[in-house]
Amino acid sequence: MCGTPHNHGWVAKLKDGTVTILGADCANDKFGADSTVFKDISLAMNARREKERADKVRSLVEQSMHFENELRAAIARVRQARMQLDEFLSSVGHEFRQRIVNMAKTGNASVVIEGIKVRYDQKSGKNTPETSIIKHTLGVLDGLSAIDYQQFLRLTVEMEHIKAAFVEARTSTQLNRAIKAKLGNHIEQCEPALVQAEKLVQIVTRFFRNQAWLYCFLTDDRSERARLAKRAMSESGIEGSRDQAKAWLTQREHELCRELGVERIRLCR
Do 142 and 209 form a contact (C-beta atoms < 8 A)? Predict the structure, then answer.
């Protein structure tokens, strides 16, 4: 107001109820305004956050039965998704299972094959073969992060603890401050846990949308390849025995060789 730069300045309320303006330097030198006011602001903000947190927990507890049912259903969905994944992985064989676990750990979801191309150099008169290798990406797998078993276990245990906290907060008549704080810590994680559960179930769903055709190129084991080929053949609407699945896969590989212009293909580690 006076034109003098007072930095941020302060508004001071006087004893008679009027207000005036103090420059930042004057307020700090005469009254220690910076340290006092910032301390008060910090205390006020902390109190406000605590009140908001307490209000949120209270609101959640008021809907306890609803959230208990939501958690119970989410736990069932997560367990069912993991069971489906376990059943699939246990049905395909050790080599495939190990390969896909390693892919999940490294984050490399690409299914790559190597095409072997042989050319004969006749200039020397000895018809010498020259071999070249062509790398080709067949596709990229989705939902590989679902392979991590521990995340299912951690999330299920967390949701069980949250559900138990709701029950205790709803049914207990006398709780000391420490127990209330502990229950509140669990309860306020309810909504994030439900969101995480839904995301995890969706990841498993995406994993099962992968084409089994790609899985055939993740293992050299003949028995495993036959099982995977039968699954891939079934996805294509063709039913048959494992021997028929082997023949079907061989035919697909021949077609792939022609497309790539190579003599044969092999897995790329």
Answer: yes
